Amino acid sequence: GDNLYTNSLIAVDADTGARKWFFQFTPGDVFDWDATEIPVLVDTPVDGKPRKLVVMANRNGFYYVLDRETGTFLRGVPFAKQNWAKGLDASGKAISNGLKPTAAGTLVYPSVDGAANWYSPAYHPDLKLFFIAAREDGGVVFKSDPHQDRNLVMVGGSWQRLSPSERSGAVRALKVATGELVWEFHLQQPPWSGLLATAGGLVFGGTEEGDFFALDASTGKLLWRFFTGGRIVANPVSYAVNGKEYVAIAAGQSIFSFALEP
After folding, report:
1. Number of folded domains that form the chain
2. For residue 150, what are the domain limits?
């Protein structure tokens, strides 16, 4: 069955704890695409009418636009390579391609790590652009018969990852209300770094190779890059001290902080 309420976004009344609505992204998930991503709250017109939205680039490879007051599905489009669904129906439920784990192995996109994950997306309210570090990665999923063995974890399947040459990533800018791609910035490997958008029109992010970079939020053009020497598996942050603005990132076992020259 659908296995409610896994892989779902759930709205709860803050005063009473009562559930107001839910939306399940991947019913009956057999690929480990639990919805660990960060939802973003946006107020913007949709079809000419003001709407209070919640948007999410989901681990299953689809970008979703929901009415956050009712949970109503409004839009949904792929933002990364996926082959498990033909698309989404009018209610937002995936139209399955019938892919399932098999004993021989089934190639599935996205991978077990998803097309996105726990790291932060970003949003620029003036540009009305949503930014996501997309993972272009797949894997072969296997089904096996679980067996009982003392002191061991029992599982009914496994994943085989693709080689580094078969996977990549990208920072993508999407129109927030529709998911339409505006620009993308190629990454050599699937990222584990979140993004940070600034009022000054920049998007900061990091790479598996250790580069911390700044892009033009309107065009995706690379404006600046710094090699940290360590993997970036963290979200950038901005802060101010005595009126001076800084941007910081954790890389490897170090924290780097940057500011403009006076």
Report:
1. 1
2. 8-258
- Kindly list the catalytic residues: 32
Which residues partner with 143 through β-bridges? 157
51 domain residue, yes or no: yes
DSSP string covering 188-239, please?
SS------EE-TTSEEEEE-TTSEEEEEETTT--EEEEEE-SS---S--EEE
What pLDDT shows up at residue 155? 76
What six digits make up the tokens of 64? Answer: 């979703």
State both tokens at 77. Answer: 């489009």
Query: What single letter denotes the amino acid at residue 70?
Result: T
**Token code pair at residue 243:** 């009126």
Q: What is the pLDDT of residues 206-227, one digit of tens each?
A: 999 999 999 999 999 999 999 9
Q: Is residue 195 part of a domain?
A: yes
- Angular region, 32: left φ>0, alpha ψ -120 to 50, beta rest: left
Query: Do 212 and 206 meet the contact criterion of CB atoms below 8 Å apart?
Result: yes
Within a domain: residue 93? yes
Which residues neighbour 93 within 8 Å (Cβ) at sequence distance 6 or greater?
24, 27
